[in-house]
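Researcher: Let's do a round of design. I'm pasting the structure tokens now; please hold your answer until I've finished.
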């Protein structure tokens, strides 16, 4: 019997950076809950962006933000993992040198010192993050959970030197085509799903997970019913047990409705 469904957002439920979810998802989530099946949205996005996207059912779901740095429910933090403080400034400097726009996840907002108007509009009106602009991220005096770099023209090439330099000390992962996410090495979506499963006393055999990118692999491994969407990276399709239709084809929605 299925008791928990977990889904990535960008590239799985919506387009990368998309700010609107098909309203039918909300109806299905509520009907699943009536049957005793919880829903959790798991994303590299900050929790404030997840809350906005799922506002109609915000009090009925769990959410995992920052690729697993944050687990919350009903606007309340259940769990978080801080960034390695001694590496934060070094990471920011390296991302700047690579020409990336940078956001830093705090507990209730994201911080940025970007002056790029296109980027700012994207995180404000696309992702709907709660954004606080600061003069210099290197002078930030606030708890940090995740540092993310963005290249809107494609991140992979610029990310390679950072992944090589920090890969043994931090969790460094590509998220979509534009983002490089960095967190404490213990952090990933799978670890956060496991925390949720343990708290709810739900086994992997009672869990469904949907994903499309490399930062979804660990949580796919936390569920017997692991689905890659058809537009997923080939490595992710290989990792998952099952294949759903693409995000544009509403693959996760079709699978979710099978359990009503």
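Researcher: That's everything. Go ahead.
Model: Designed sequence:
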């Amino acid at each position: 019997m299925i008791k928990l469904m977990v889904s990535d957002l960008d590239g799985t439920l919506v387009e990368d950076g998309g700010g609107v979810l098909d309203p039918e998802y909300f109806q299905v989530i509520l009907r699943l809950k009536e049957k005793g099946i919880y829903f959790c949205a798991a994303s590299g996005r900050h929790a404030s962006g997840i809350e906005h996207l799922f506002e109609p059912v915000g009090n009925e779901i769990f959410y995992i933000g920052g690729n697993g740095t944050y687990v919350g429910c009903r606007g309340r933090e259940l769990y978080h993992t801080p960034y390695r403080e001694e590496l934060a400034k070094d990471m920011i400097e390296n991302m700047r040198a690579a020409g990336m726009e940078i956001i830093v996840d705090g507990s209730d907002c994201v911080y940025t010192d970007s002056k790029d108007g296109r980027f700012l509009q994207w995180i404000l009106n696309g992702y709907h993050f709660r954004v606080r602009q600061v003069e210099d991220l290197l002078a930030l005096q606030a708890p940090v959970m995740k540092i993310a770099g963005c290249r809107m023209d494609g991140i992979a090439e610029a990310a390679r030197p950072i992944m090589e330099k920090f890969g043994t000390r931090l969790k460094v992962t590509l998220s979509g085509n534009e983002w490089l996410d960095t967190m404490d090495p213990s952090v990933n979506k799978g670890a956060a799903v496991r925390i949720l499963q343990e708290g709810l006393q739900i086994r992997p055999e009672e869990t469904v997970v949907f994903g499309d990118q490399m930062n979804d692999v660990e949580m796919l491994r936390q569920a017997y019913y692991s689905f890659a969407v058809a537009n997923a990276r080939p490595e992710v399709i290989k990792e998952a047990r099952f294949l759903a239709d693409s995000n544009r084809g509403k693959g996760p929605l079709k699978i979710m409705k099978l359990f009503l």
